[in-house]
Design goal:
The protein has 121 residues and is an all-beta fold. It is 0% helix and 57% strand. The protein has no helices and 11 strands. Strands 2, 4, 5, 6, 9, 10 and 11 form a 7-stranded mixed β-sheet that branches. Strand 9 and strand 10 (108-111) form a beta hairpin. It is elongated, with a radius of gyration of 14 Å. The termini are far apart.
Amino acid sequence: QVQLVESGGGSVQPGGSLRLSCAASGSFFRIPAMGWYRQAPGKQRELVATATSGGSFNYADSVKGRFTISRDNAKNTVYLQMGSLKPEDTAVYYCNARAYPTMTSTFADYWGQGTQVTVSS
């Protein structure tokens, strides 16, 4: 099992910055990918950014150039540096880990509890 603990959400004015962190703990073989998703009220959950253990990164078009995802493999932690924030970035942000619980098992998706990000003047 993988537990994900998120931190760093909050309220900020448009144009401001926030940094989210997510640390994975528990029993697992390896975590090939970690990332961030978000869900705004009345909308479906959507991908924000992902980072693989091999150093590949993927971003939603809406955040390219404004958000940066990074990962510390030794700490099983993923970060999301968010800049030039807009009101439309307001959402609950969820950390995701795609992990192999054991060497022989298939992968499974694990989710954090979510952290609120509010961008408003």
